[in-house]
Structures are given as structure tokens and as C-alpha cells.
Amino acid sequence: MSINGDWKVTMNSPMGKQDATLSLAADGAALSGKIVSSQGTQDFTGGSVEGGSLSWKVKMTQPMPMELEFSAIVEGDGISGNAKLGMFGNASFSGTRL
């Protein structure tokens, strides 16, 4: 199963629902990509892939600096997971392949 490509995702954050486009690129067990949302574009490297399970970190600058820790599962053309939002708790997200 390929996780590579673009995904339309919605995150249920403390600020309400946030839509974004998640671009993923796996190279073996290494994961990189970017998230494009109303807060701008955040690139990331250093993520990991194990089967359909993914994890990665994103350093946000807007609306305030913080590091988000993502974990997700890809099943077919669907993705779902959780993001740790530093001191703001957790946010679930889900989406579909574009």
C-alpha cells in the first residue's frame, strides 16, 4: 500500500475544525512531506513508516511556535490519526486521498 501523495485532511483542533492538504513521501521506512493550511506551509523530514502506520513532527510558527507530533494509520484511500498539540492537548484528524 502506498502512502505517497496528497491527502485532504480535517483536524478537530481546540480552535475548531481545520482543513489542510497533507503531502506524504515515503522512502523505505523514512517519511517526509508538508502540511498546507490556513497557517501556512510546514515542511517536515525525519518521520517514519511501518506498514500503514506513520509518525512525524512538525514545527509550527503560526499562530504560535510549537512542535506538533503526529501519528496516523493509512487504510486504502483513508487516513486517520492524532496530533499532540503541546500544551493544548490532542486533536484527532482524518481525511482521504486526493
Quick summary of this structure?
The chain is an all-beta fold and 98 residues long. 0% of the residues lie in helices and 74% in strands.
Question: How would you sum up this structure, described in words?
Answer:
The protein is mainly beta and 98 residues long. The protein has a single domain, classed as Quinohemoprotein amine dehydrogenase alpha subunit, domain 2 (Lipocalin). It is 0% helix and 74% strand. It is built from no helices and 8 strands. The chain has strands at residues 5-13, 16-27, 30-37, 40-50, 53-60, 66-75, 78-84, 90-97. The chain has an 8-stranded antiparallel beta barrel. A hairpin with a 2-residue loop joins β3 (30-37) and β4 (40-50). The chain is globular, with a radius of gyration of 12 Å. It starts with a strand and ends with a strand. The mean pLDDT is 93.
Key traits:
single chain; 98 residues; mainly beta; Lipocalin; 8 strands; globular
